[in-house]
Structures are given as structure tokens and as C-alpha cells.
Amino acid sequence: MSFWKIFFKNTSDMNWQTNIELENTENILLVKHLENEGQYLDIYFSIDDDINLYDLEKLCDSVGWVRRPLKKVKMAIDHSFLTICLFYKSCQKKNLIGFARVTSDNSFNATIWDVVIHPKFQGKGLGKVLMDQVIKQLRYSDISTITLFADPQVVSFYRNLGFITDPDGVKGMFWYPL
Amino acid sequence: MSFWKIFFKNTSDMNWQTNIELENTENILLVKHLENEGQYLDIYFSIDDDINLYDLEKLCDSVGWVRRPLKKVKMAIDHSFLTICLFYKSCQKKNLIGFARVTSDNSFNATIWDVVIHPKFQGKGLGKVLMDQVIKQLRYSDISTITLFADPQVVSFYRNLGFITDPDGVKGMFWYPL
């Protein structure tokens, strides 16, 4: 219990009614009664890495990402330090609406990859909820350098969360096969 | 044997006399007879993660890096996807002169951290040797997005190795605790 107590301390400054409570160590009620298309939904948060890969593929399809071999996706999830899912439940089924994962050396550095919120749930602050939880989890693990690579259209989103570009002239660089 | 044969295929375009040969699977003769301060030394390469932490600390001291708790350094190495050392031998002792390590999801993405060459051995192309081996190893593992964060003074070094900054406006971003 103590882990989650620490983890969720001061967890959110959102305007919605929030209600962080333990269902079990995997599924946490994060946002109570988020309004979406006239419906009120409870949004849950999970760090369980037992993810339905087809649900994840569907989520990635919804934002137009290029499909990747599921075997490689599974390998990537299995070797990520942290995977976070946002979902709501209907008829006892989990509906995946958000995802992020993190690689790390478990000590100093972490890099966040594959941050995605389903288009129907964008613009409701869930991206911030997701990222706040990622950062809290990494800080709980005493990891102090948190990095990511942001597409131009989301640089300002991450800036608002406290991420900075090119600190002291440090540049993110990429190498791709020719 | 096949792994190393693939790994070292076309391994170097250096001007030095190179002689890649197997001593065992951990210590590979990489550069034969590198001239250093009037001495000729054989430079070895290792991906063994059983690193003497005091030797590594000494190497990091030599380039003026802030000291880090050895326990956290060990944790970081243990959870790195790849650690690479460059060293020469004298009196059966390994002398660590280069180091790099990589975090990865073992599938799509990798991030290179802590690249260091001892000042006495800088300007001899060993940084390129080290990075070439890092890239070859990652490509062998079919990892296609290789990233790093470069201090301003080494951006051009990495550019010469084929790394690019801000491709399509993608920005490397950082979050640090306040």
C-alpha cells in the first residue's frame, strides 16, 4: 500500500472530480466521471505490462501511426522499464484510450516513447494525466534525467509539463539506417 | 563464431593497421599497434558488463565528470542493453580508456549514454571506433532508431558519424527535478 500512497500523493491539479483509489495494484481509478460525448466515464490507470497487443495496435491506428510487427512490439514492452495504460471499462471490458512506455537504466536516465491518447479523448487533459503519472513513477524510482523526443506539434505540450529543449545546448540526435 | 563474424564485417575504415581477431567472446583485439606517446599499444574492445567500477570512476574523473554513487552506476550498467569498453593491457592488467553504454527496449529504440575516451587517447579516432561498434551491435540486434544527447562541443563529432539533429523538427527534450 505504501508505494501507491507515495506515488499518488498530490497527484493532480486537474479541475475534474478526481478520485484516486486502489482497486488493486494494477488498476487505479484515476479520473472519476470524465465527460465524453455526453457520457460519463471513469478513467483507469494501469502499469500492468500484460497489454492486449491488438488493443494497442488499434489505439496506434487511431492516431495514424505506421503499424509495427506485434512480435517486436511485445519485445519492446517486455523490455521497457515502465508501461502505462489509460482505459475505461464497459461491460467488464477494458477500453484502451491512452498509452506510454519508458526505457531506462533503472538508475539515472529514462526515455519516454510511444505516448498516445485516442483522438476521441484528446483535448480533455488526459495526456497531462498520463505524463504526470510517468514522471511520478520515475521520480519514485529516483530517476532524475527524464528525456523524450517530441514531434514539432507536441513540443509546446511537453513544455507546459516542464520539459525543456536543448538545455545548455545539449542536442537530441538520431541515427537511422540508410 | 558467426555472431562475431557478422558483427565485425566491414568493421572499420580507419587508417591504422587493424586486426580484428577473437581472443575470446569478451575481449576483441580492435586496433593493433596504436601509437600513443611514443609507445605502441594494442587496443581491445569488450562488451562484458563485468566492469571494474573504480576503473570506470577513474576514467570519468579524467574527463571531469561529476562523481556518481557507485551503487547507482552498477545498477545503471546492470540495466543497460549494451556496455562497451576500450582498453589496453599492461602486465596482464586491463587499462580502461574508453566506455559507452546503451539503454534500449531491445526492439525499436536505443539511447546511448556516458560516452567517454580518456584525454590521453583522444584525437586518435578511438571515439569513432567505439561508436562504430555501438552502432554495429545495435544494428545486429535490428534496432533502427539510435538516439543520444550530445553536448554542444561534440555535436559535430556525432554528425560526422551520421547522427542528425532535429529530423523533421523532432526535438530532444529533458525534464529535471526542480
Explain this structure to me?
The structure is a homodimer of 178-residue chains. Chain A has a domain at 24-144: 3-Layer(aba) Sandwich (Aminopeptidase). Chain A is 26% helix and 37% strand. By secondary structure, the first copy, chain A, is an alpha+beta fold. Chain A has a seven-stranded mixed β-sheet. Chain A has helices spanning 2-7, 53-62, 70-78, 126-140, 155-160; strands spanning 18-22, 27-36, 39-46, 82-90, 93-104, 109-117, 145-150, 164-165, 171-175. The longest helix of chain A is centred in the last third of the chain and has 15 residues, at 126-140. Chains A and B meet through α3, β5, β6, β7 and α5 of A and α3, β5, β6, β7 and α5 of B.
Over all CA atoms, what is the radius of gyration of chain A? 16 Å
Strand element count of chain A: 9
- Shape by Cα distribution of chain A: globular
Oligomer: homodimer
Strand-residue proportion of chain A: 35-45%
Helicity range of chain A: 25-40%
Class from helix and strand fractions of chain A: alpha+beta
Order of helices and strands of chain A: HEEEHHEEEHEHEE
InterPro entries (chains A, B): Acyl_CoA_acyltransferase, GNAT_dom, NSI-like
Protein name (chains A, B): GCN5-like N-acetyltransferase
Pfam family, one (chains A, B): Acetyltransf_10
Keywords (chains A, B): Acyltransferase, Plastid, Transferase
Quick tags:
disordered N terminus; alpha+beta; Aminopeptidase; 178 residues; 37% strand; 7-stranded mixed β-sheet; 26% helix; homodimer; 5 helices; 9 strands
